[in-house]
Amino acid sequence: MHINKESIEEIDKEREQENLRKVEAALFIAGKFMSLQELVALTDVNPILLKNVLESLSEKYKDS
To answer: Which residues of the chain have pLDDT under 50?
Structure first.
């Protein structure tokens, strides 16, 4: 299997989407405020990436 820059970018994008779905599901199911530590424990998403995911979700739902 040959891995090129596009393959790596595609894998990264898929991981970002998976992290977004995990965090969104955790927040939906919890139905309450959750600390970063709780979200990391539930989703196994790196805290630095988690902050980016939360920013993306905030942007996604800002007009909802």
So the answer is: none
